[in-house]
Amino acid sequence: MFDKTPIYGAKKVHQQLLENGVKSSLNTVATYRKELGLKAILAVNQVTTTVPNKQHEKYSYTHANQVCRTDITYIKVKSAMV
Which of 12, 31, 54, 82 could form an SS bridge with 8, CB 3.0 to 4.6 Å? Predict the structure, then answer.
């Protein structure tokens, strides 16, 4: 079946087997496919979206020698009891 339709995954192969009169569970089909190293061949290339765009504005403020300035005009201090 894999030779005829290599785009089928375990679910589709399981469904096809049931239609052909072969009783098997989805887990059994998935296990056999994994043991044989059979993977569905996708007709479409998947787009990788995890590569960051370094020209994006969120990367414009990060510099190696940048100094962060903070306002420390108010710091709450516990008063010492005498």
Answer: 12
Place of tokens 């087997």: 17
Tens-binned pLDDT, residue by residue, of the chain (82 aa): 777 777 788 888 899 889 999 999 999 988 988 898 888 877 677 777 777 777 877 766 655 555 556 656 666 777 666 5
Helix (H, G, I), strand (E, B) or coil at 21: coil
21 Rama class: left (phi>0) / alpha (psi -120 to 50) / beta: left
For residue 65, the SS3 value is coil
